[in-house]
């Protein structure tokens, strides 16, 4: 069988893989390095499914309402947020962005649910001065004591232990815990502070306090990031988050179009089944090349492979010779999440806001509910708009609550979502649209020791001179912004 040649293969066409291909191609264009007939300069993205985007996955109902199966909004702040907006601009998507500002109710009003009902989380200076349920003291009284908390001497600590130690048990239970459920669908008692919130972890290390660190630490400067007009606009208009016309699937779709227009091959329905490392024929060169075999029996050879597939997938592609690397990757596991999209006619929500999260100490089978129509009414159907919301369930507790995610009955998940919404929001009205999505292994869980594990993975690749890079949500941040920024850094260092 003919071996196809390329300079770089990118495995996985989720946002990480597409971003990696973008930054590679953009640098070739800058350096005026065009492809030649031997495959030099050629970039090929091999995506397993027919669709690009991975967990950026929107769908539209026949009536025109847009729902998200995965990511529903992206934050514009910080270096990583600005970098994403620069990318949006570079592919000509400025006009598709729908922002939400910091003063919008969807930003100001975030709730947690406890046995006593919904509680609005502090979002202003005045709200941290007064005591607000479910907390027994004002937030300020905890913050004042924080600089005097005992410092941790360990290399890593669970998020629960970190916040209990520095800000008290209530903050750990009613803030850190639900946020971990909202971001990672994970358990704050198992997740690593160092890996999940590295800036806060480092602030304690460096300044002895996260509050003092917040004032004194200076973020690393990246003068070429945040230069696009849309990144400037986000700053001036104080955006808090954004989505896109027709949902966030628009982003990977347009990114893929840009790649194809600029000569990158994006091949859908091309699941990779095997990676092999082969020595160049010139023994003096000693350089390894990489061979990738797909399930369709295509064979590709390249100078380098960027693996943006989840760690659990990547470990299964490697040759037996690199079992040690497979074993390291195998340790990065992910949680299963059920996402239930709902629409209601003429619904009056009891509160307006982003939605609410449920701490794990509360008797409830759900992680939280997002009030999608509040943040982005632009995605409601045009005629007779309904109220869209999404209920998230499972995560680190999936097996205990619902059993095997491969055999769970979607109608059980739907009735559990509706019962929770009735009990917690008092909504007993029947939804006019429902869709249950069961996502297997969708959010990586950065457990204690994750940072060391990722360092070991990089070290193995370096020490064995493997022509491969690893990018994606399995390693250094699960947000879309983190994934894109990691991809940029990984290919810049090639
Ligand atoms: C329910 C949910 C809600 C989320 N909400 C948010 C949010 O609001 N904001 C935010 O910033 N982030 C959010 N995230 C996180 C974010 O969406 C993901 O971390 C990010 O999209 C991961 O991108 P990725 O490219 O690294 O991985 P993936 O999206 O997993 O992409 C990997 C790609 O590899 C492909 N693939 C797998 N196996 C193979 C193979 N053998 N060969 C070839 N291709 C293969 C897959 O089909 C997929 O397209 C959410 C995630 C989930 C699941």
TrEMBL record:
- Biological processes annotated in GO: heme biosynthetic process; protoporphyrinogen IX biosynthetic process
Q: Does this entry carry the keyword Transmembrane? A: no
Subcellular location field: Mitochondrion inner membrane
What protein name applies here?
Answer: Protoporphyrinogen oxidase
Cofactor binding summary note: Binds 1 FAD per subunit.
| Domain Amine oxidase: residue ranges | 15-491
Gene Ontology MF: a single term: oxygen-dependent protoporphyrinogen oxidase activity
Q: Required cofactors, per record?
A: FAD
Catalytic activity annotated for this protein?
A: protoporphyrinogen IX + 3 O2 = protoporphyrin IX + 3 H2O2
What does this protein do, in the record's words? Catalyzes the 6-electron oxidation of protoporphyrinogen-IX to form protoporphyrin-IX.
Pfam families tied to this protein: Amino_oxidase
- Reported EC number(s) for this entry are 1.3.3.4
Question: Pathway, per Swiss-Prot/TrEMBL?
Answer: Porphyrin-containing compound metabolism; protoporphyrin-IX biosynthesis; protoporphyrin-IX from protoporphyrinogen-IX: step 1/1
Name the family.
Belongs to the protoporphyrinogen/coproporphyrinogen oxidase family. Protoporphyrinogen oxidase subfamily.
Which organism does this record belong to? Strongylocentrotus purpuratus
What is the protein's major site of localization? mitochondrion
Q: Which GO terms describe its cellular component?
A: mitochondrial inner membrane
Q: Which UniProt keywords apply?
A: FAD, Flavoprotein, Heme biosynthesis, Mitochondrion, Oxidoreductase, Porphyrin biosynthesis
């Amino acid at each position: 069988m003919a071996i196809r040649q390329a300079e770089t293969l990118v495995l996985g066409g989720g946002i990480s893989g597409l971003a990696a291909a973008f930054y590679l191609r953009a640098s070739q264009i800058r350096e005026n390095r065009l492809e030649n007939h031997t495959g030099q300069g050629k970039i090929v993205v091999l995506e397993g499914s027919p669709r690009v985007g991975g967990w950026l996955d929107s769908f539209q109902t026949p009536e025109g309402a847009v729902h998200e199966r995965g990511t529903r909004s992206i934050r514009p702040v910080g270096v990583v947020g600005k970098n994403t907006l620069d990318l949006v601009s570079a592919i000509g998507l400025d006009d598709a962005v729908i922002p939400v500002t910091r003063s919008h109710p969807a930003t100001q009003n975030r709730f947690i649910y406890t046995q006593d009902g919904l509680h609005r989380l502090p979002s202003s200076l005045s709200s941290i001065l007064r005591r607000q349920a479910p907390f027994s003291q004002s937030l300020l009284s905890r913050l004042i004591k924080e600089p005097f908390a005992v410092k941790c001497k360990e290399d890593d600590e669970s998020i629960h232990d970190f916040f209990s130690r520095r800000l008290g048990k209530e903050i750990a239970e009613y803030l850190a815990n639900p946020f971990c459920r909202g971001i990672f669908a994970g358990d704050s008692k198992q997740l690593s502070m160092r890996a999940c919130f590295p800036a806060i972890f480092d602030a304690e290390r460096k300044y002895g306090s996260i509050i003092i660190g917040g004032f004194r630490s200076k973020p690393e400067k990246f003068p070429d990031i945040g230069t696009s007009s849309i990144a400037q606009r986000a700053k001036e208009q104080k955006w808090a988050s954004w989505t896109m016309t027709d949902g966030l699937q628009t982003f990977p779709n347009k990114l893929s179009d840009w790649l194809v227009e600029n000569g990158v091959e994006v091949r859908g329905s091309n699941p990779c089944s095997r990676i092999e490392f082969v020595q160049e024929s010139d023994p003096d060169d000693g350089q390894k090349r990489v061979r990738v075999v797909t399930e369709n029996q295509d064979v590709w050879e390249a100078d380098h492979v960027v693996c943006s597939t989840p760690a659990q997938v990547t470990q299964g592609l490697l040759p037996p010779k690199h079992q040690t690397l497979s074993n390291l990757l195998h340790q990065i596991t992910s949680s299963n999440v059920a996402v239930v999209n709902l629409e209601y006619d003429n619904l009056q929500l009891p509160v307006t806001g982003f939605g609410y999260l449920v701490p794990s100490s509360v008797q409830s089978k759900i992680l939280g509910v997002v009030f999608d129509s509040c943040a982005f009414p632009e995605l409601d159907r045009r005629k007779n708009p309904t109220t869209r919301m999404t209920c998230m369930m499972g995560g680190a507790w999936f097996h205990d609550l619902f059993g095997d995610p491969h055999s769970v009955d979607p109608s059980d998940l739907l009735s559990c979502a509706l019962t929770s919404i009735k009990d917690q929001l008092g909504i007993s009205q029947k939804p006019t649209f429902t869709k249950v999505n069961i996502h297997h292994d969708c959010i990586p869980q950065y457990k204690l020791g994750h940072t060391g594990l990722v360092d070991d993975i990089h070290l193995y690749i370096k020490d064995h001179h493997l022509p491969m890079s690893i990018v994606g949500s399995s390693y250094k941040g699960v947000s879309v912004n983190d994934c894109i920024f990691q991809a940029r850094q990984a290919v810049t260092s090639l």
